[in-house]
Design goal:
InterPro entries: Cu-oxidase-like_N (IPR011707), Cu-oxidase_2nd (IPR001117), Cu-oxidase_C (IPR011706), Cu-oxidase_fam (IPR045087), Cu_oxidase_CS (IPR033138), Cu_oxidase_Cu_BS (IPR002355), Cupredoxin (IPR008972). The protein is mainly beta and 693 residues long. The protein has 2 domains: 61-429, Immunoglobulin-like; 459-675, Cupredoxins -  blue copper proteins (Immunoglobulin-like, Sandwich). It has 5 helices and 37 strands. The strands form 8 sheets. The chain has a 7-stranded mixed sheet. The protein is globular and about 65 Å long.
């Protein structure tokens, strides 16, 4: 029986003026709510009716199925009556309830029977996690890899009970791409928005689906997402409200594709890093919707487990939603044999259509594309293939686009790392480490900055100069042996696979360490002496002193803030590219470029500052694109803006898990603490215990 330990009971405004209504315990008791308690001023009109909102209904009545992306529910007639995956209608919103159990598990374990011994039917047994056919320890949600796909409509109430059944581990879940404007305590960042969920505890995440588009979720505690704690999350709108709806015929639940990078070691084995064997934090292979086969570097196939298959009908145009739920320091390209892709959304934002042959994606990015299935009836290869910095591993994975009536096996020869499925001329979105400056765009593109939104940016965003400008410089501090081993301090470090140096991962020279208590819910308990001094670095000279502390950067509310993101390392065509993610906001992508090369960073950086303060900058287009996650070219810079209308503590970081876990992160404090909402009634508390002896 599901143990009822409700740690988070209420959401939204949390304001005393409106009040809040804690859910009853136990969970199976009557569940009542009203729009008064859940309606966000930024969500849909309150005149709509919510299914399941009447007194006397049980929350269990709105439990969603775990396998909505399996293909059997692509016909809406097969969906359960209470399904939140449905044709959306603003006149009705629903309550969407999920139960997540996080636990250690095994790929191709007992549940898989004879799956790896050519009994393919066993590979589809309930509870069988296939991965790439190699047995290893994994972490799963409801014994699924990836976790259950959440697919709801804008305005729905989403309730997820997360039970931690991982012995000796804490956890949280972050809803990547959701702004949590009125649900700040639900963002899922340990020691920023909440306490970690301890073993055997349940934390209830609850929020209105206010941000239409493609998102995903993942653990934000340690390296758990590397080992499998990820899943897809789609918030749809009524078709009439989709500006690109005339470009496709079908948007099916089974065409949400979660791509994971994969290794045969557990993630913790690679931190801080091994010296003699498996010395990389780079993937051995990939998984496409939790499945794949294992190919060695020379192309030999070592497993024969079934590949993921995506069914289509000839002559129809389909939306495919592609999620880079990857964690290692590598980008990849995604290609479909003989099929172009028409990009209609970048991350969660609808854009003006852009046709490409391949997508290059960084950890945390998402693209929604339309695939016109107008080729001869056949099956076609889909391929994920690592690029650039990770070419040495030659990691790739395959799946199948199957036209109905065709054989399950494509007629074309199986692609390899050397012979890509991109076997014809065409554009690649965001080529690896492309500079994407105004001068190089014609030869580099198309880049993120070339995409155009279907919506106009607010006039303040398009002003020549912002109200506030801040800088995030992503880099590394190289430790010497004395600093690490001949001291009583225990520094956080990572063994760099490319240089074999021991490094701290930094932003503005700072290795971020978690606060002693959550910043948002327990600011009064923070040991403020552990917080970095606000004048910890000098933008003018970039005279940085390495330190480990709680990295908070404060900006005022309701201002245009320009965030300039730079890479301290010099440009290398095959160099490491960080993936940048900011919680709580979409960032307007204004410019991209390369810092002046062959000079030290403390010389090239002031030149960039001078340029940004000048009148020589290009005019900002009305339809400038926004993203919440994007790649930073090695040695490059990206100029972004936000309008700070979402006060709170918002995490920003590199989305490469090992950089994040060794300090490449920070917290953007928007506004003053006394303007933030109080925590929900009964919200968990945690912190140091240091009594006087």
């Amino acid at each position: 029986m599901w143990t009822i330990l409700i740690n988070a009971l209420v959401i939204s405004h949390f304001g005393a003026a409106q009040g809040h209504h804690p859910y009853r315990r136990p969970l199976e008791d009557n569940f009542e709510h009203s729009d008064r308690h859940y309606h966000s001023p930024h969500s849909l009109p309150s005149s709509r009716q919510r299914s399941g909102g009447s007194r006397g209904q049980n929350l269990i009545d709105y439990l969603q199925i775990d396998d909505v992306d399996s293909g059997r529910y692509d016909d809406p007639r097969n969906l359960p009556q209470n399904s939140c995956t449905r044709p959306c209608d603003y006149r009705e919103s629903r309550t969407c309830y999920y139960r997540f159990t996080l636990e250690p598990y095994t790929s191709v374990g007992r549940a898989c029977g004879n799956c790896t011994r050519n009994n393919v039917n066993d590979c589809y047994n309930k509870g069988c996690v296939i991965a790439d056919g190699v047995e290893r320890a994994v972490l799963t949600i409801n014994r699924r890899l990836p976790g259950p796909s959440i697919q709801v409509c804008a305005g729905d109430l989403v309730v997820i009970d997360v039970k931690n059944s991982m012995p000796g581990r804490s956890t949280t879940i972050h809803w990547h791409g959701l702004k949590m404007r009125d649900y700040k305590f639900m963002d899922g960042v340990p020691m920023v928005t909440q306490c970690p969920i301890l073993e055997s505890n349940i934390f209830r995440y609850i929020f209105t689906a206010d941000d239409p588009g493609l998102h995903f979720y993942h653990s934000h505690d340690g390296l758990q997402k590397v080992d499998g704690i990820v899943g897809g999350f789609v918030i749809r709108v009524p078709r009439d409200d989709d500006p690109n709806s005339d470009l496709y015929d079908l948007d099916q639940p089974s065409h949400v594709i979660v791509i994971q990078d994969w290794h045969h070691l557990v993630a913790d084995a690679m931190l801080p890093g091994l010296l003699y064997d498996n010395t990389d934090q780079r993937p051995l292979t990939y998984l496409i919707q939790g499945r794949g086969q294992y190919f060695t570097k020379n192309g030999n196939r070592l497993t024969t487990t079934p590949l993921s298959e995506f069914n289509v009908t000839q002559g129809k145009r389909y939306v495919f939603r592609i999620i880079a739920a990857t964690c290692f320091e590598c980008q990849y390209t995604f290609t479909i044999e003989n099929h172009d892709m028409l990009i209609i959304a970048a991350d969660a934002q609808s854009i003006k259509p852009y046709r490409v042959n391949s997508l290059t994606m960084s950890p945390g990015e998402r693209y929604s594309v339309v695939v016109n299935c107008n080729k001869p009836t056949n099956s076609y290869w889909m391929q994920v293939r690592t690029v650039g910095y990770c070419n040495a591993t030659e990691a790739y994975q395959l799946a199948v686009l199957r036209y109905r009536g065709a054989s399950r096996t494509p007629s074309a020869t199986s692609p390899t790392y050397a012979v890509s499925a991109a076997n014809r001329p065409g554009l690649t979105m965001s080529p690896f480490n492309s500079i994407c400056s105004i001068e190089t765009r014609d030869r580099d593109g198309p880049c993120v900055s070339d995409l155009r939104s279907v919506s106009a940016a607010p006039p303040p965003i398009r002003r020549a100069q912002p109200d506030v400008r801040i800088y995030w410089a992503f880099g590394f501090y190289i430790f010497n042996s004395n600093e690490l081993y001949n001291t009583s301090e225990h520094k956080v470090f990572l063994v760099s696979p490319s240089t074999n140096n021991s490094v701290g991962s930094t932003i503005n020279g700072i290795v971020n360490v978690p606060a002693s208590s959550p910043l948002l819910s327990q600011s009064e308990d923070i040991a403020w002496e552990t917080v970095c001094p606000p004048q910890g670095f000098d933008y003018r000279t970039w005279n940085v002193v390495h330190r480990e502390c709680v990295h908070i950067m404060q900006v005022p509310a309701n201002q245009v803030v320009e965030i300039v993101i730079v890479d301290e390392l010099p440009y290398e065509p095959a160099g490491l590219s960080h993936s940048i993610h900011l919680h709580g906001y979409d960032m307007y992508i204004l410019e991209m470029g390369l810092l002046k090369q062959n000079v030290p960073f403390n010389q090239s950086f002031p030149q960039l500052q001078k340029y940004l303060s000048s009148n020589n900058r290009p005019r900002i287009p009305v339809d400038v694109v926004t993203k919440d996650t994007f790649p930073l070219t090695a040695g490059g810079y990206i100029v972004t803006r936000i309008y700070t209308d979402n006060p709170g503590f918002w995490f920003f970081h590199c989305h490469f898990a090992y950089h994040l876990d060794t300090g490449m992160s920070g917290v953007l404090q928007v506004g003053e603490i006394d303007s933030f909402p109080p925590p929900p009634f009964g919200f968990p508390r945690c912190g140091d215990y240091l009594p006087f002896p």
